[in-house]
Amino acid sequence: MPGDQSTMKLTFLGTGTSMGVPVAGGFGGKEFSKEDSKDERYRASAWVQTEESSILVDVGPEFRLQTLRAGLSHIDLVLVTHEHMDHIAGLDDLRPFNYVQEQALPLYTTASCIKAIRSRFDYMFGPDRYPGAVSVDMKELTETITFRDCRITPLPVRHGKLDILGFRINDLSYLTDVKSIPDKTKERIRGSKVMVLSGLRWKPPHPTHLTIPEAIEVARELEVPQTYLIHMNSGVVHEETSKKLPEGIDLSYDGLTIEI
Questions:
Q1: pLDDT in tens, 149-207
Q2: What is the pLDDT of residue 3?
Q3: Residue 200 phi/psi, 5° resolution?
Q4: Has residue 1 got a pLDDT over 90?
Q5: Is there a contact between 163 and 179 (Cβ–Cβ < 8 Å)?
Q6: Measured at the alpha carbon of residue 41, what is the angle toward residues 255 and 166, in degrees to the nearest 5?
Q7: The pLDDT value given to residue 204
Q8: Contact, 7 vs 47, CB < 8 A?
Q9: Do 85 and 121 touch, CB atoms closer than 8 A?
Q10: Domains of the chain
Q11: Is 30 left (phi over 0), alpha (psi -120 to 50) or beta?
Q12: What DSSP string runs through 206-226?
């Protein structure tokens, strides 16, 4: 099976909520620690590397800065969880990758996300396509695919009322902006070595995102050995929060790289 022998590397390009941490204008930043760089969070995105593949998950507003910070200079495949702008606003910065790699980038996501991208970035598509615009080959991901040394399985979840995707890539399950997980998806996650799961804040309950206590319950139920929380707001102070988390559950932070 693809991925059985290869080591996978996961780099967290961004771990923050939709407005980032701190937010524009510096509002609501009383809890934000300027002394700890782990409390600065770009919008949520990840980079998965294997022996044969370089996979980008989500393309947010800071994508250009994220690539420079992480040294990301080649992309084989793009996976997009959903159409909210904190996950697709950086699509235009894929242009240099098109130019250098001299090809369109394959992109897998939901049907609704494909529709949204075509609408919001209309200059990239159709007969009036702007010369030099980003070139992506978008396809809906509805079943498991094999991409080089990776087995990629869609993980349908609910983000409030919106149907979105997480992704299982070999032994990694990546889910952000999650509020609820169907039983069928839970079965697809089981057996993963690492799970990335959104944990917006401690309390109170949020209508479209798991809180940290809710995320802890999910991690315990699915019995994944290691879970990293993602998509945290400014109220989640890294050092303070980390002390409260149970064994096997940790906060991610921008620039964290792990091997799976």
A1: 999 999 999 999 999 999 999 999 999 999 999 999 999 999 999 999 999 999 889 99
A2: 43
A3: -65, -45
A4: no
A5: no
A6: 80
A7: 86
A8: no
A9: no
A10: 9-259 (3.60.15.10)
A11: alpha
A12: -SSS--HHHHHHHHHHHT-SE
